[in-house]
Amino acid sequence: MGNSTLKKHKNMKNSSISLGLTAAVLLVVFGSLANAGDGDTTHAFETNAMRVPTLKTSSGCVIQGVTIHSAVAPAFLGTVVVQGGKITGVSRDGNDNFAEAHHDLLVIDGTGKHLAPGVVDTHSHLAISGGVNEGTLSITADCDISDTINPDDLGIYRALAGGVTTIQCLHGSANAIDGRSEVLKLKWGATAAELVFPDAPQGIKFALGENPKRSNGRGNSTRFPSSRRGIEAVYDRAFTRALAYGEGWKAYEQAVERGEDAMPPRRDLRLETLLGIIEGAVKVHSHSYRADEILMLMRKAEEFGFRVQTLQHVLEGYKIAAEIAEHGAGTSTFSDWWNYKIEAYDAIPQNAALLHEAGVLSTINSDSGELIRHLYHEAAKSVRYAGLNRVDALRLATLNGALQLGLGDRTGSIEVGKDADLVLLDADPLSIYSQVQWTMVDGEIEFERIDAFELYRADVTSDTKLDSESGAAPVLPTENTEGLLAFVGATVHPADGPAIANGTVVVSGSRIVAVGSGIELPAGCKTVDFKGKHIWPGMIALDTPIGLFEIGSVPATSDSSEIGGNQPDLSVTASVHPESAHIGVTRTNGITRTQTAPQGGGPIMGQSSVIDLDGMTWEELVCKDRDMLHINFPRMQNDAKDDKEPERVTEIHDLLEEAREWRRLTDAAKGNGLAPIRDRRLEALAPYALGEKRIALHADSAQTILGAIRFAKNEELDVVLYGVTEGWKVAERIAAEGLSVVVGPVLSVPRSDFDPFDSRYANAAVLVRAGVRVAIMSSDNGNPRNLPFAAGFAANWGLSKDEALRAVTLHAAEVVGLQESLGSLTAGKLADIVVTDGDLFEATTQVLGMWIDGREVSMINRQTRLYDKYRDRLHRVKGK
Predict the structure, then answer these.
(1) Which stretch of DSSP H or E encloses residue 237?
(2) Do 580 and 547 contact (CB within 8 A), yes or no?
(3) pLDDT over 50 at 30, yes or no
(4) pTM above 0.85, yes or no
(5) Within 10 Å of residue 261's Cβ, how many Cβ atoms?
(6) Predicted pLDDT of residue 544
């Protein structure tokens, strides 16, 4: 919020919070930054007082004229009545007497708004105190997560801000059989007992694969099991003992009935729970990945006479979709996470949709304090990747989850008689541009949107000078037209100018030769009709490990970090692996170039290179070698007693000085006709130390950013700040220094309890409003393909769509010094072109085609091949 902080007091909600506490809070939030002496460091904040909703609906309400997304039918305009915490009426528009019959209730005007069922997340670790795992034994069925529910977890409030109303709170996955779960209704400010969903069926957490066999820790422990075959044995032995336990009690009860003075068996809570699983009273929700282990668990359950309720994560579920459907298990998966460990490497974003196609009750889950905040959008990705219809996509995040938890008759859809767990949004819930206005649980408003940054539906843009002549009608040569290719009929988004309806882009070889409308095409020019489609410049993903990293838990597949401290001469170039599956997967969403950069070590981590995503050797991929030096500026705490710089800052300063002195001595030696002694480290560092080349200076927290700014100024370095996730706290200071930034991650949880819930989303807009030039990166090593969604969220939280587009195209090209050849659809630039069926940033939009350097690039990748292969298998198996 910057210099408008004082104005924000008018938005604080009434609460019993004392003025003294408020002052103390502000002292904590602002105190240490003010000590930095770097100018105005006041900024937006959020306290519990501000989180109290002002809209009261406990006596009931009528929501009129709203677009209703019921999750059981296509959206329609209508009215919903809420009384006594229940939905008591749903009517389509046209029933004029419907609202009048409830004239005594609070009327909420829903004109232009959208009403959706609250999100049901079947896999969450929110609101757990004291850790999620009891890792001492392979079976801990006697543990109960309800013993550790923490109602003060701020994640509850932030989940409500994303429209989540119900979660299944689960133990971790350290055990083959873990503890019992609890289903919660999210209510901010409630007690632990008030959070518990009344009479929800009892669940229990199982786990398969790498986690319970402890493959990826600091060396495997001596705890059994340490293999998948051992996990199967755990189930065999456990349920055999449980059956024997049950037989013992049955024999005792029969003896009592016969009048015998029998001794009861020793009660065993662990075996009692396992027996409850066999008898169907306790529902199994199993962490799972590989198809073989999933099939094993289902067969083992059938052997002992029970059914797996849900397979959680189930990343290879698509491979055995028919078998899962036949068993009757539900599946709860990630939308697109993959590659973070070996058993996740075959994950595909079409998983949920293919399981749905097989007849499986399928959902999307979070397993994350950030992902839970946008599960509507995560569900929307099944439209993008697999063409799932919108109603079924919405059900992935709502009704299907309720059904999996045995609560489908009480929540998950907008139907009469169900709990009033409702979410009001200002756009379609599946749209990247929708924001939750309020979230209602059991008829009470539990979250109400706060505009801490005064950016709601803002259209913040920079004063970027746009030199595009896209609107002109260039004249093309009439001779030597062989090889000319024209894309016609689409809406063209050049990035350096306004969109062009019914536009044309003409390519010759690797270059764009004309962009505009009404272009006269010469005879012999080949045309491709994209009427009704959209054409965009290829996006540039900054600071990625593309080509250096394959599988997170397998060190042998990662070359993104180096040991040994400062390594300025290390370059990524010759380590880029052209056959990496990440290259094709990243292209999928319209990314044509990446800045492949070191991701660890340092503080001086090494040099990055810009690559295009189509080539068979690293020499073919690299388009700018050693474009930047990456320095991870040592972290400084926001609440530090003073602004003393860490010792490692002095270490960097000394090395820069040494590099400058080395250059001076080298130049002097050359001037005297002497051959200087080479020092590769100092030779590589010198041009950066002298400001001749650009440095990517990574700094996230506000105090670290201020320290990095001061350091760069004192050293006279040419820097771009990377990360700046708390840039919104010091935006004016960054702007005053004229520095550009690369923001990311956008999709992440705020660091402080006093940060506004949307501070990471609004960060880019706050910075641009202050006058900072902003590019956006995904900061997701496993999924840089999600760059367009990061830009979409920034656009939804105050940045103009045009500015968001420039942040991942033109401004990104400027950061790496390639703005003359990349970043926009402009005559003379390289032809990096992306064609879509809609808005580039929408989660539901499909990328239809791509050209890099004027070459059409296949959209087939490892994941699409797996999808096609196992979709064919599903049809073959079902055909039998």
Answers:
(1) helix 228-257
(2) yes
(3) no
(4) yes
(5) 6
(6) 98
